[in-house]
From TrEMBL:
PANTHER family for the chain: DNA 3'-5' HELICASE, UVRD / RECB / PCRA DNA HELICASE FAMILY MEMBER
Top-rank EC class of the record's enzyme: isomerase
Full protein name: DNA 3'-5' helicase
GO biological process: recombinational repair
Any one GO molecular-function label of the UniProt entry: exonuclease activity
Domain UvrD-like helicase C-terminal: 95-334
Catalytic activity: Couples ATP hydrolysis with the unwinding of duplex DNA by translocating in the 3'-5' direction; ATP + H2O = ADP + phosphate + H(+)
GO cellular component, one term: cytosol
Length: 675
């Protein structure tokens, strides 16, 4: 649909004798899961409504000559491998694939033959599990590169799936001194200090959750006090003995503190300033908490629910933090890196998931498969599998398989072309149906460049030894040349480390947002009476409940938000509300059977063309009937009638035919129907 819109604009541009520039690369089309279609760009030359002049940019200005030469040879060979598979099965060459990669070979802008490529295919056996060996080799290779002179900021690790990132980051954190920098690895729940603050909140909100308490104690003992104490040890003994004494002594006082100040207090009580590299996390976390409190109360259980459902996934930007970059291949598109490492280069060429549905149709195709009863359905969802090759939907299967081949070949192309100087890849040995298998077959067919291949002669060793290919010489990082400039605006910005500290301050009374809003409404006249305040409270109650059984919860919410001044006032408002809801018609409105719209805005345009808003107190709908109710707590006024009549006219204009309106004078418990 998006392309159809552009198509019309392009036709209009041509009709006006104007040109248009379309820029794209079929080989970098990796977003089919977002409905991207590489065949649109591939088929532009066949569109009779366009006059196309194609121009290929044949020079690669990013990569060193050896990287370009390797990618030229590899992807030409990989394309041929896939074409051979297709031709052996279909009898004809796969022209779509060959055309898509017809311009894969690029020229280099460099005069020197520089650049380094290394491919390692690891075995998978019981003695050396593949995933564990992969992480170990990735860490060892990274360490070796840095020791040889490549800076950490020049290294990027590209992965197929985001879920791989935490495992790699965790392994590097435990086995290397190097920092991994990634938006995915910098989630708030990756911060030890924030997790301890959340643990402290759980301790206060859920005093019966012994597991959560023990985890907090383990974190405090191991990370703050550096005592090697296990979770079982703490559970066997008394949890409070392993927590800060100041925290345990102030439990009751802490429960009464506002949320933000409580978090800062926990930071101090648990001495979290001893944990390094937490400042960026804490700043982002405190900002998120402040934003949360603008719209919500400080109730601990509600905030913990918000943390569990949403806030824990928030990431902090990695920015210019010194470290090894790690990101997905999709996110790396359009970027470049000095040295690119690609572990786990072993994803499937075809069905990546077990729930891969494709929509098939044979109706109206005129083919031999256009037969009953299959052609009686316009479209059918079919789970993609090789079994489709022997079914009536064979043509749909072949088309989807070709799409998957192109998708995964394009992913490899995007990943391999991110490298400027060095490209290092790890795959899985003898893994059928994966990109690892495709790479191994392509390397065997590739004639240029001449890869140095290390392979053991012994059949016994072949199953346990890595299969290694190398080409070129490793390129080291070059010191950045700093140019002196008299223009201060052109100077390179330097990062300044910032350390976050909390200072304890005396807490004064802090009003909740809803309480402040409510009291602000009372500042009309100095002689505001208790009668008026009760009216506002009852209005708040009736507008917030759906049925009569919701009344206790609504009263409780007003008490928690600081709107009710005393227990006596709470009892008084409860009695008044219960008395008012005993009216037979009101009782029907609050029986829970109506579809409710409480204080929802109605937007309309007045006679001057300006947008206006009206907000009835309560609109209810059931079985085509619409009832509008406005709550009133003073004397009768003709203006109230005009107001409700306007609401009724607006809803009638919206297409509702059976609309009734009422004024409910609550203190008299009297209903006035508006006609």
């Amino acid at each position: 649909m998006q392309w159809e819109n552009f198509h019309l604009l392009l036709q209009e541009s041509l009709a006006q004798k104007e040109g248009s520039l379309i820029v794209g690369d079929i080989k970098q089309s990796i977003y089919r899961w977002r409905n991207g279609d590489w065949k649109i760009l591939a088929g532009l030359g066949n569109d009779p409504s366009f006059r196309i002049r194609e121009c290929s940019l044949g020079t690669n200005w990013r990569s060193e000559a050896n990287i370009i030469r390797f990618n030229n040879g590899l992807f030409t060979a990989a394309c041929q491998v896939l074409n051979d598979r297709y031709e052996a099965e279909q009898g004809d060459p796969c022209t779509q694939l060959l055309d898509a990669y017809s311009d894969v070979c690029q020229q280099t802008a460099r005069k020197d033959e520089k650049g380094y490529i290394k491919l390692t295919f690891l075995p998978d056996n019981k003695e050396e599990p593949y995933a564990e060996t992969m992480l170990q080799q990735l860490a060892e290779e990274t360490d070796a590169l840095i020791r040889k002179g490549i800076q950490t900021k020049d290294i990027a690790i590209l992965v197929r799936k985001n879920k791989t990132i935490p495992a790699i980051a965790d392994y590097f954190d435990k086995h290397t001194p190097y920092r991994i920098v990634s938006d995915e690895a910098f989630r708030l729940d990756a911060s030890l200090a924030i997790c301890m603050i959340i643990g402290g909140l759980r301790f206060l909100a859920m005093p019966d959750d012994l597991i959560a308490q023990a985890r907090l104690a383990v974190a405090y003992q191991n990370e703050i006090l550096h005592q090697d104490i296990s979770l079982n040890t703490i559970l066997i003994n008394k949890v409070s003995d392993y927590l800060p004494a100041g925290f345990m002594l102030q439990l009751e006082e802490l429960k009464l503190m506002p949320l933000y100040e409580l978090m800062e207090k926990l930071f101090i009580l648990f001495s979290m300033e001893r944990i390094e590299h937490q400042d960026a996390y804490l700043c982002a976390f405190y900002d998120a908490v402040t934003e949360y409190q603008q719209k919500h109360s400080s109730e601990l259980t509600a905030f913990l629910t918000y943390w569990d459902e949403k806030l824990h996934e928030k990431t902090i930007p990695s920015g210019e933090i010194e470290g090894i970059r790690i990101l997905s291949i999709h996110k790396s598109k359009g970027l470049e890196y000095h040295t690119v490492l690609i572990p786990f280069c072993d994803w499937k060429m075809e069905n990546e998931t077990n729930s891969h549905l494709i929509w098939c149709s044979v109706a109206g195709t005129g083919k031999e498969t256009d037969i009953a009863p299959f052609n009686e359905l316009d479209i059918v969802p079919v789970n993609y599998s090789s079994a489709m090759a022997n079914s009536i939907y064979r043509s749909s299967y072949l088309e989807e398989r070709l799409q998957l081949w192109v998708d995964n070949l394009n992913l490899l192309y995007v990943a391999f072309t991110r490298a400027c100087k060095n490209l290092i890849i790890w795959g899985k040995q003898n893994q059928k149906g994966t990109v690892s298998e495709l790479l191994q077959e392509a390397l065997l067919q590739m004639k240029d460049p001449p890869m140095q291949h290390e392979e053991t002669d012994s059949e016994e060793d072949k199953s346990s030894a890595p299969d290694l290919y190398e080409y070129g010489t490793l390129c080291l990082s070059e010191p950045s040349a700093e140019q002196a400039s008299g223009n201060r605006l052109s100077e390179q910005a330097e990062g300044i480390p910032v350390r976050l500290e909390s200072t304890e301050t005396a807490i004064e009374f802090q009003q909740s947002n809803r309480s402040a809003d409510f009291i602000r409404g009372e500042e009309e006249e100095e002689d505001s009476t208790q009668y008026i305040r009760q009216g506002r409270l009852l209005h708040q109650v009736f507008a917030s409940i759906r049925q009569e059984s919701d009344l206790p919860e609504a009263i409780s919410r007003l008490r928690f938000d600081g709107i009710l001044e005393s227990a006596e006032q709470e009892k008084q408002i409860t009695r008044l509300a219960q008395w008012a809801m005993n009216h037979p018609k009101v009782k029907d409105w609050y029986n829970g059977t109506w579809e409710l719209f409480n204080e929802c805005a109605i937007l309309f345009t007045d006679e001057n063309g300006h947008t206006q808003t009206r907000r009835p107190d309560r609109v209810m709908m059931k079985n085509g009937q619409v009832i509008i109710v406005d709550f009133k707590f003073g004397k009768k006024n003709e203006a109230y009638n005009r107001q409700v009549r306007e609401y009724m006219n607006l809803l009638s204009a919206m297409g509702y035919t059976h609309v009734e309106g009422f004024l409910w004078y609550v203190f008299k418990n009297e209903l006035e129907e508006i006609v």
